[in-house]
Amino acid sequence: MSNPAIIAMPDVVTMHVASGVLQALSSSLALQTDAVATVDAHALQTFDSSAVAVLLELKRELAQGGRTLEVVNLPPKLKALVALYGVSEMLPA
Fold it and tell me: Domain residue spans in the chain?
């Protein structure tokens, strides 16, 4: 059995680019068939609450197809935003 592909988030996810980022990540994840889809957030440098919204939408989309989202390497500031918005249980890191 092969390792599932990991999709990397870009270095910038702000409200100005969130829609395009979501579309790109959704398209990449749609090509995979693994039950667990992994998104790596290590590259994130510039982001706002839109990054949380993108991850939550990806999680929702995947759940509709019976899949789950795993997010790895969340930067500490993004972990803080996730906690601030009270969605730590939805996006565990």
Answer: 6-84
CATH class of 6-84: alpha beta
Please give the chain's pLDDT, 93 residues, in tens: 445 689 999 999 999 999 999 999 999 999 988 999 999 999 999 999 999 999 999 999 999 999 999 999 999 999 999 999 999 988 876
Phi, psi (degrees; rounded to nearest 5) at 56:
-65, -40
Q: Which helix (H) or strand (E) holds 68?
A: strand 68-72
